[in-house]
Amino acid sequence: MLRQSEILCLFVICFQAVLSYNLRISNNGPVVLGAVISFKAELLDDYEQPAAGTYCYKWRDNAIPYHSAEFLSIGSVTTWNVTFPKDEYNPGIYEVEVAVDKCSVFRWAITSARSFFNITLLLNGNMQLEQDNSSLSSSGDTYVASDAPLTHAISLSQPDATFVDVAATRVVSYWFIDCVYYGMSTNMSFIQSYSGATGQSKVIDTLRVHNSGIFEVCGSLRFPSGSLWFPIGNWSGIASKTTTISTTTVSVNVTTHIPLAINVTTPSPVADKSSDVSNSTQDDQIKSNDLSSAVQPTPAKPHGLYEIGRNYSGIGIVPFICLKNAEIPLNPNNTYGYFSRRIKIRDPVENVSFVGTNWLKQGEMLNISGSCSGSGPFRNCVQMYPGSYNITGHESCESEQILSDCRFVIRHYFKKADAYKLVVIISNDVSKKITPLTVNIYKVTKHPQLSVIIVPVTCSAAAVILIVFGIAYYIQSRNRYTIEVADFDFSQASDMEYKTFRERLREAMSNAINRTQDYVEEGNVWSPSRKYGSMQ
Fold first, then answer.
1. Does the predicted TM-score (pTM) go above 0.85?
2. Disulfide engineering: 160 pairs with which of 95, 156, 217, 228, CB 3.0-4.6 Å?
3. How far apart are the C-alpha atoms of 479 and 464, rounded to whole Å?
4. What is the pLDDT of residues 20-74, one digit of tens each?
5. 31, 168: one domain
6. Strand order in the sheet with 77-83
7. 95 within a domain of the structure (yes/no)
8. Cβ neighbours, 10 Å, residue 321
């Protein structure tokens, strides 16, 4: 019998050495003190597949006092829910451990794992912003349009929201913008318009108070069962009563509107014997300060905790808001939540206009100038579609042009004569404007121009006229001159006689007399210049 047990143990050891498991632990934290935190353990095999079989899961955390549980599960997944009451535990980082045993005929440990989880003093969640039925991104810079109301809403994590719904009897939200108090609301939303604040940055803070007792501030004050200390701007007018108070002090070191260090000491409860205050009085007070439709802060008389329109920057009476190194006493019966968002306000894209002609002849270049108004920088692109196109509102730019000033030019050459739809997309940080523009390209029948006929004919006629005129001028000039030909007979070779001066003089005078008589002869039609004398 002993031999069989040894063999079985050896087999189990070998089997355990061959198989390996991966245990994954997750939780839905962080959660606020008093809320339920849920743990989930998932057992996987070598192939990252859910392990099959029956397993024993042993849970335990390192809180004081600790929580522990053990479950038998047929499958690879098991869950464990734990609550950390605020009167027993402090907020902080805790650790949970899960050990898994294989449960069959025999039981042996196969794996274990540990994981950290966070229990917080403040409610967990975030402030969501919504404008024009669209949620604004919470990552990076948050840009808000100046022309539409902005809805601020607090969204709590699922375990904290469940805790508030079950445990809270009164929920009040105090809203601050740049440390200026705008009032309170009984719901989780606050609507505000930021027109006229273009180019500015705003910090929105909200303090949520969830209490399980009944209290009223200023005038008459009733403390709920247990101790109470709530920050109040003005204590005058409170009925004189002898009350022993044990406080919970929170040390807050805030440099960027976020508590960095929080130390909590557990209060000692003290019975309160003050008179009751009707719930209707509190309801009327909260409703009178409901900011679901608030727009601008208006100075008012002090009421409740804070004054509307007052700047609380650096004043140590506003928990977690606009404070630096302040000691803040809190009510141990209340649960607080602090949420903050920074926004940048911009003008949307508006007044999109175009200058230029959209009816073009085939072959002409499209040249249209566009402009708009709003806060830069701007992103611009143009999409072209032949024929008709219906705008869907979901058009986007694949490649866009960045503009510091909303002025741009659309130039394009269309090869074919047709109707085209240009979709001009202009966007900035808060809006997108999609504008359709129709361009018509039409054909024109080409006729020979009159100049094509007139110019050649005119030039030809002018050339003919010039040629004719030149010929006529040449003929006329030729007729104007007579060419005279003198026939001299130089064939006679007679030697000239030697004459004396007297003989030559006599001969010259004789020739002159004879030439004059020939000129005056009747019927003579020849001019003297055409007469020739005697050759003797």
1. no
2. 156
3. 23
4. 889 999 999 899 999 999 999 999 988 889 988 899 999 999 999 999 999 998 8
5. no
6. 22-27, 36-44, 77-83
7. yes
8. 24
Point out which residues pair with 43 in neighbouring strands: 23
Tokens of 450: 């009159």
- Peptide bond connecting 332 to the previous residue in cis, omega within 30 degrees of 0: no
Extract the residue ranges of the chain whose pLDDT is less than 50: 1-2, 17, 213-304, 316-319, 324-327, 526, 529-532, 534-536
Tell me the CA distances in angstroms from 350 to 196, 214, 379, 509, one per residue in order: 16, 51, 14, 121
Same-domain status, 363 and 436: yes
432-442 vs 359-361, strand pairing mode: parallel
Q: For the segment 317-375, what is each residue's pLDDT rounded down to a tens digit?
A: 444 556 543 445 567 788 888 898 999 999 999 999 999 999 999 889 999 999 999 99
Contact 176, 205 (CB under 8 A): yes
Cα separation, 111 vs 99, in Å, equals: 6
Rounded to an integer, what distance in angstroms lies between the CA atom of residue 323 and that of residue 213? Answer: 27
Does residue 530 belong to any structural domain of this protein?
A: no
Output the pLDDT for position 228: 28
C-alpha 361, offset from chain centre: 39
Is 370 found in the same domain as 436? yes
Torsion of CA 220, 225, 226, 231, to 10 degrees: -30
Give the model's pLDDT for residue 322.
63
Token pair for 436:
């359709």
Query: Which residue from 352, 342, 334 is spatially nearest to 136, judged by alpha carbons?
Result: 342
Indicate the helix (H) or strand (E) that contains 31: strand 31-32
Alpha-carbon distance of 424 to 220, in angstroms, equals 64
The rounded distance, in Å, linking the Cα atoms of 248 and 264 is 7
Of 79, 98, 83, the residue nearest 31 (C-alpha): 83
